[in-house]
Amino acid sequence: MPVVAGRGFVYSESMKESGEKQPEDSVWSDSKDEQAATQVSQSREGAPGSESDLTYLSISKPDGRYAVKRRTVLPICLFIGTCLSTFWVGVSLWNPNFFEPFYRAISNPAAQGGSLLEIRQMLLANWDTGLIYMLCVMLILLMHEMGHFIATLIYRVPASYPFFLPFPANPIGTLGAVIGMQGALADRKQIFDIGIAGPLAGLLAAVPIAYFGVSQLDLTSQPYGGFGFRLPLLLDWFAKSTGVPGYETGDVVWMSQLNPLFVAGWVGMLITGLNMMPIGQLDGGHITYTLFGKKAHGIAQATIVFAIAYMVYHNNFMLILMVILLLLMGPNHPPTRDDKVAIGPFRYGLGLASLTIPFLCFPPQIFKITF
């Protein structure tokens, strides 16, 4: 998922020995980088001590060992929460109304017994489906984030542990995951490698899971339920190559026709395709900036305008929250530590090829709802 520049602090061993106090909200303590280290301080003009833009001050190369202090409790809690939320939506068979039994149990004490019995029956009947879905989705997300994280370790760029985002109030149970990093310490080539490592690692898990999930579909059965999953181009190819019974291009896979491998693979494709949009600090934004420099700003702004126009034209506003968040974060990518570092022809070709991922993995209209 996105690798977002964090608001942390990097300190050398020499600063530590001098007795200079580190801020309590620092994510990172001591750090060593082969080329430079940066002290980041927060200030707001006219309001001392309040949070604002970051000012970068050069300091001497640290003498001590490389060590990063990261939060652990919050990432672990969010990981467990995402496991539970994805497990539950799998148990409820991805029904958008899966909270209804809980709501009835809370709002109507007289019907509480029946509602709790319904929940228990769902757990007993579908626990295996929920478990398979949870394991597959979490594997895809974990591989994606570990791709980013391992790349930051290789390049000694301070980064947080992945923050998984549970979201049980939707049919897929998660909003993905994110890590924070001190992007100002990475040069052009390093940002490229960190940005592309996540999507490539995630697709290593998502592609086979999606392929086997698609191969198990059978669309000849009479569908029921007013909620369906639209297929992106890559899954459309999988459906044709595996000869899914009853499938034709443009068909929707309805709730009664789903299986956990298909939905997990579909979610992996959706998240990867969305994350590879060439905007801001999304992975696609990192890659686009390293390929085209400041020209990437125009690409990002044009992409957002196109996305808004597309949603208005099709009267489909499912991604409006994502667009608002991107606008708040800013569509433009910040400069790297050294934009002049060459990335070479292999990385350039790989980066151009990776920009096709949104077209292959992202379903333009996502769901079909007929309630």
Primary descriptors:
371 residues; mainly alpha; 2 domains; 3-stranded mixed sheet; 3-stranded antiparallel sheet; 10% strand
Structural features, described:
There is one protein chain. The chain folds into two domains: 3-59, no CATH class; 133-165 and 183-369, no CATH class. The chain has helices at 13-17, 73-91, 100-107, 112-154, 188-215, 233-242, 260-275, 283-292, 295-314, 320-329, 344-354, 357-361; strands at 3-5, 37-42, 54-59, 163-166, 174-181, 227-230, 252-254, 367-369. It has 371 residues and is mainly alpha-helical. It starts with a strand and ends with a strand. Helix 4 (112-154) packs across helix 5. The strands form three sheets. A three-stranded mixed sheet has the order 1-5-4.
Sequence-ordered SSE layout with sheet pairings:
Blueprint: E1 3-5, H1 13-17, E2 37-42, E3 54-59, H2 73-91, H3 100-107, H4 112-154, E4 163-166, E5 174-181, H5 188-215, E6 227-230, H6 233-242, E7 252-254, H7 260-275, H8 283-292, H9 295-314, H10 320-329, H11 344-354, H12 357-361, E8 367-369
Parallel strand pairs: 1-5
Antiparallel strand pairs: 2-3, 4-5, 6-7, 6-8
Helix pairs in contact: 2-4, 3-4, 4-5, 4-7, 5-6, 5-7, 5-8, 8-9, 8-11
The share of residues in helices is: 40-55%
> What is the distance, rounded to the nearest whole angstrom, between the alpha carbons of the first and last residues?
31 Å
Q: Count every beta strand, where a strand is a DSSP E run of 2 or more residues.
A: 8
SSE succession? EHEEHHHEEHEHEHHHHHHE
By DSSP (H or I, 4+ residues per run), the number of helices equals: 12
Radius of gyration: 23 Å
Structural classification? mainly alpha
Would you tell me the overall average pLDDT? 80
